[in-house]
Amino acid sequence: MYLAKVYITLKPTVNDPQGLTIKGALHNLGFDTVKSVRYGKYMELQMEGEDIARAGEQVKEMCRKLLANTVIENFSFELEEMKIT
Amino acid sequence: MKFGIVTFPGTWSDGDCYYSLGNILEQDVRYIWHKDTDLSGLDCVVLPGGFSYGDYLRAGAIARFSAVMPAVERFAAGGKLVIGICNGFQILCEAGLLPGALMTNSHLQYRCQWTNLKVENHNSPFTNQSTAGQVIKVPISHHGGNYYADERTLEDLEKNNRVLFRYCESNGEISAGSNPNGSMHNIAGIINARGNVMGMMPHPERACEPLLGGSDGNIIWKSIIRYLTNKV
Amino acid sequence: MVFKKEVLDEVALSIGEYNLIVQKLGREPTIVELGLFGSLWSEHCGYKHSRKLLKLFPVTRRTAGGKEQLGQVVIKPGEENAGAVDIGDGLCVIMKIESHNHPSAVEPYQGAATGVGGIVRDIFTMGARPIALLNSLRFGPLDIPRNRYLFNGVVGGIGGYGNCLGIPDVGGEIFFAKPYSSNPLVNAMCVGIARRDSLVSARASGVGNKIMLVGADTGRDGLHGASGLASRTFGEQPEMRSAVQVGNPFMEKLLMEACLELASTDWIVGIQDLGAAGLTSASIESAEKGGSGLDIDVLKVPRREQGMTPYEIMLSESQERMLVVVKTGCEEKVMAVFQKWDLKADVIGTVTGDGLARIREGDVIHAEAPVAILTDAPSYRLYPRKPAWIKKLQNRDISGALNPGRKSFNWWLLKLLGSPNICSKSLVFRQYDHQVLNNTVISPGGDAAVLRIKGTPRGIALSTDGNGRYCYLDPYAGGAMAVAEAARNVVCTGAIPIAITNCLNFGNPEKNDIYYQLKECIRGMARACRVLNTPVISGNVSLYNETHGEAVYPTPVVGMLGLLLDVRRHVTAGFQEKGDVVYLLGVGDDRVNDLAGSEYLEQRLGLVAGRPSIDLAMERRVQRCCLAAIGKKIIKSAHDCAEGGLAVALAESSILGGKGFIGPQWECGELAAANLFGETPSRIVVSVAKDREDALLKEAKRHRVPVKRLGTVGGASFILGENVNISLRDIEQAWKQGLEGKG
To answer: Are residues B54 and A28, on separate chains, in Cβ contact within 8 Å?
Structure first.
């Protein structure tokens, strides 16, 4: 079993209204040190499998096909082995 | 009676609340800018619907830090009436003035439609002009109206008659089919323990004229007016 | 020539056009100037292929007294961002429809969302409060996954943006057909209201006045949106994807409130939104309108991305930006309004008197060309021949469809009611807020939406229409039918049709066949507009709607505005009371050709053929008769006969009213199918109380309109003589579930 931690973020060049608005709110609360906010999504996927390379390929495919909108989003992920309980 | 309607950046039902209270029910109404902190002279504060701060991060999460909110909290603590509609309800929950949270609708879609609401407690300042178990027709318009609270909170709400409105069939039956957003216990509106702060997802300000499809929303406004008149 | 052919391709200019630029300027243009020309001479901004044809449209309205203001056109096409028409009491309605087809084909959610954003800006730019949105959508069949993805994305984007703004989405139509596969049409219409004396112009004038840029920072979003996307056909070209713009409806809402606040002051000369071709078209077109020059320093433009060139800054299509021309001395007051709404505003230039568009980066001048030359796009006129294939389709024998095959008419009626083109679209409309602003009297799903106008007894009715199948078979008739049906729809609510806006969605106009369609369609629309007295007050042209060389159906979308003098007297489409008598105003010919271009024909034989036609004089008489009868309170319900024909229209009135219908006598000979499902235009199903039958017949006679008694309202069944007998529940279910599970 593997645990895939998937991060979906807007491509750096794409406008991020959510991030901008959150940054403004943080400034209003006095957190002036914040220079930039980029809003994204985080997902955890538990997957069956033995081969970490193959699992990685699968997650990549899932991101391309469904999890990320590659027109405007980038994705990255980490794979961890899970103990079967 | 004097009503104050709060405008946050992104609020849009402020105008509709103003029109229904001011033009239809001929009450004294004024707008309150989210940066203002002066609520003096008001009998009731309305937090209207809309997408404050674009609903970014979470609906109501940013608006609850507006300058006006501590004043609203003091206003409520003084026993005055506060009503949150739609986004206003979300803000009240985020601010902790009402328990629970409003999650994304269970079907993940926006819903704008007329709903039937069963009045579960007709003795509150917001419902005293309704009859026991009356079914009223009021529209919803939201993406995140799925009421959630933990077991203990729900038990507390139910035990103390703090659920004011539940989604129901036109005959009053509380059914899964009449629940438009997945809310627990079909909850559409609740009050705080003291009974002076109310939040509801449906929009009473949209149901004040037969020309627009119904006027049951006036029951809520008239209840508030009656309560305040009696108090004076 | 100092530029390579590829550079010209990128800005979509031909070598001939380049040479024209050199000739006019008397020198080679700079790269920034080339970008300006490419945008301003694009079809989107310059209307190269359509300008001459668009002149055919009538742009004024005949009003009764001559001096009467009600119904008068206040702002004509091309004068401002949108057209305006007087609705009395010093108020006017401002409206426009615009396409966002290409962006929606690339990224449907954002494409549709920013389409809504753009059209809303066009309205509040003029100082008008937007009060309604409508959408006219076309997709390929939903059994293809890509089309489902586009459909869901577009609907999501429209709702996501419009709901956040607090502008009700009150109507429109959705149509599915193969030629729209992978090439959806997304036309968004916005309607606003303003006091006639407080309209704001989009002009830059007054030497020394400051030009202010407000709203979002500028990024590389949508570079070449106007020239690249809107002027070229494309398949799945990944490089086009960098052009995707992400909308921010929250900022748009703030901009809207701030601009409306400014519109009520006298601190500004003009406001213009940044749409296609961004800063380029906004600034230079404003200068042209004001007869001025301008001087813009791109270093003053706040940027979201690093290392942007002057070229990129001028052509960026970043959303939610406005240009405001501020009167000297009022800068601080204007700035304070934007600050109140948490908006950023920067002075980026000044209005000049030399007639030049000067673009600088600090001290370095990157462009310095006369505004008059930049905005003088060439205009092409072609002389197309009628394509042989159209004749062939028109003459094709369609009589085979008269035979319903192995299925009964019951089966066919249920099939048509459940077809995505006919069924209830409530699954879509319930995702849009259609009530906010407390004006919506008739919600989406009726013939037209009706809104009351606060503070007056009046109301307006709004509808969009345009059947691509009819235009494909006969572009002239199809164009006329689009106008006629839109007008008929508002008439069915009791409103007088007074003006239209339109969006012309066609393929590549450089091809003979497409140009023929465009030309004929415009001629047909123009004719109908004259006959029905509904001038064109605004519009938009979307050409090059092709994928792999296959064009969409020629699709003119008409957005109709109707006026109700007393909104309480509106009429709805549903049957009202048991015992009411149902009539048909205007009568079909009951011939095979009624089935031309019909939904039934396509479903029955898989054919799009035949020659649709319309008698505009009859159309006008039917509409006048219906309006007169509504005015005299004779008619209790009215519903237009459209796709699916008479049987479907009657079934819809039954479903909407929740009441059965009994039509005792029915054409049951060999023309039964044409009678049931033929789509002859100029017909309205009306119901009247029993004691008002004579009054209706008298009105019909007075207007020389054929009229036919069809049956009575009542019962729990839907019965058309021997042909159809179905329970009300079954027709309702078929109609309501047509889109279920298809999204």
So the answer is: no
